[in-house]
Amino acid sequence: MTSEIPVIEFIHPMLGFTDQRRFALVQLDEAGILSSMRSLDDPGLRFLVMPAEPFFPDYHPVVEDDVAHDLGIESAEDTLLLLVLTAGTSLESSTANLAAPVLINVRTRQAQQVVLEGQDFEVAVPLVTT
Questions:
Q1: What is the pTM (predicted TM-score) of this model?
Q2: Domain boundaries in the chain?
């Protein structure tokens, strides 16, 4: 994943981070599941992100056409959808934000955090359930 899009630029800042638009994706595991999205403007700011498939295979949010248009997305092959994680002390206590994923156009490397309104997704969903 990170070899294809090592640096991304948000067309609109992430919620709560109005001055941060440029991020590098740094792969954290050999399987390419877990990545760090590090701000290029504030090295201390980073988010853990991952694709939904490994933990949420049935997650298929509907993204509005205007978002795809703003990002210049022409086909599904242009996209990478990442979930922002909140790391806990263990895998069992870690959560994913399904209500506001990050959508990336892999061709242009432009990104946007998409707030999914009216789709019944939660902000803090456990990665695993016991």
A1: 0.90
A2: 7-126
